[in-house]
Amino acid sequence: MTLLMDMVRGGKTTKVDRYEWDMRDEPGRMRMISKTDLQVDHTYQRDANHAKALDIAREWSWMACGVITVAERRNQLFVVDGQHRVLAACKRSDIDMMPCIVFQSNGIDEEAFGYLVTQTMRKAVTTIEKLRAMIATKDPVALAIKRLVEESGRTIGKSSSASTVKCVGAMYKIAKKDAALLARVWPIIDRLCEGKPILDTVVLGLAEIERRMQPGHSITDPHWERRILAIGVDELLVAARRCAAYKTSSASSGGNYSAWADGMTDAINKGLRHRLPVRALRK
Q1: Mean pLDDT over residues 261-269, rounded?
Q2: What is the DSSP secondary structure assignment for residue 115, as one 8-state letter?
Q3: Residue 119 and residue 98 in contact, taking contact as beta carbons nearer than 8 Å
Q4: Residue 4 three-state SS
């Protein structure tokens, strides 16, 4: 109501002007479009779930379908929101035309932003899907993560393996605060986990140790790198999880990276006279 009153008062500055609210694109137009003319750009779209599309097709509802959000890019029509509804319609011979709201697109980055906003607002999006869309929007943190993963000879994937990286949420959490720190510790993490999956526990734990290191020191210093690689990822994981289990029962939720760092630090320092130069945490 306040916004409406601000807008109708002649000569008054509206909240749009006062707070410099953004307007990223123009309103769309309603159109009926043949389902066969609608394309999907998997650069930013999630992977299709054909079982889900089949469920929609079996019990089709026009009301549940609503409208498909479409971007028109160089005279081609790309689905921004509604991929599974279009796939479901393609499975039915009694459906041809789809109700769509069509927006003019200046490129993939604009469409990916629209996809990211609609998916985040309406339904859960996996970390992998979110990062894929952020890469398409040229988000600098997401691009930095993609580059690190590719430089390690791996790919971003939905599961962890010797050749894929799933822990992009952990990487993003670190890089958002300190991209240089992630870039610094990633090579040692990659070497440590050679031939094995890279887990959140390792990434968050070692990054936290690096954050605590005294000025002028790093876990990437040759002495400490050799020590960490000699201990091995399996022993570090055991130490991290043991410490986390001792300190808090919520460790299994994946959020206790401080305890993981404590456990790994103990493992690194075991038997050493000159211990890892880390700052004590404030209580």
Answers
A1: 95
A2: H
A3: no
A4: helix
What's this model's pTM, rounded to 2 decimal places?
Answer: 0.65
Give the pairing of strands 164-165 and 97-104: unpaired
Tokens for 154, please give them.
Answer: 């791996």
pLDDT digits (tens, 9 = 90+) for 106-162: 889 888 888 888 877 766 678 888 898 899 888 999 999 999 999 999 999 888 899
Give the CA radius of gyration of the chain. 25
Residue 165 belongs to what H/E stretch?
strand 164-165
Say how far apart CA 48 and CA 126 lie, in whole Å. 13
Residue type present at position 37 = D
Residues 165, 15: Cα–Cα separation, whole Å: 44
Residue 89 in tokens = 């319609």
Using DSSP, state whether 51 is helix, strand or coil: helix
Q: Which residue has the tokens 């109700």?
A: 99
Q: Nearest 10 degrees: CA dihedral of 31, 33, 35, 40?
A: -70
Q: For residues 111 and 44, what is the distance between their CA atoms, to the nearest angstrom?
A: 8
Q: What amino acid occupies position 200?
A: D
Tell me how far apart the alpha carbons of residues 47 and 129 are, in angstroms, rounded to a whole number: 8
Weakest-pLDDT range from 20-24, 116-120, 242-246, 269-273: 116-120
Please name the residues in contact with 175: beta carbons below 8 A apart, sequence gap of 6 or more.
Answer: 141, 144, 145, 182
